[in-house]
Amino acid sequence: MPTPEQLTAVMEPYAHHVLVCTGGYCSTDRRGRSLYSLLAQLLQREGLLFGPRRVKRSEAPCLGVCAGGPIVAVYPAGLWYAGVTPELLERIVVEHLRDGREVPEGVFHRLGG
Ligand code: FES
């Protein structure tokens, strides 16, 4: 049996990567945890879990902001959202990730800006 080091790393194509902070400093009640679960449901509903339009999702214990959460980052657009509610997350999935129209509400930082 091959060791992990002997295996070849492989990545299926994807269109976006969404990072969700599930830590307790930006959102003391850790609302990022339920957002992360909701994200999976929304991506599945919109057909964005597989194929070339696939959206990768990752949870992180901290994204280095630590205030005004929950914090969500969308790449490669490099948009960082604060205070993300379930309603805003649904708009991000439908309008940005599915339809290609960025959602400006909640954006507090843009990569390179
Ligand atoms: S705990 Fe969420 S950004 Fe640090």
Name a few traits of the molecule.
113 residues; alpha+beta; Glutaredoxin; five-stranded mixed β-sheet; binds FE2/S2 (inorganic) cluster
What would you say this structure looks like, in words?
This protein is globular. The N and C termini lie far apart (48 Å). It has a single domain (4-110), classed as Glutaredoxin (3-Layer(aba) Sandwich), CATH 3.40.30. It is 25% helix and 20% strand. A hairpin with a 3-residue loop joins β3 and β4. It is α+β, with helices and mostly antiparallel strands and 113 residues long. The longest helix is centred in the middle third of the chain and has 15 residues, at 31-45. A five-stranded mixed beta sheet has the order 2-1-3-4-5, covered by helices on one side. Bound molecules: FE2/S2 (inorganic) cluster.
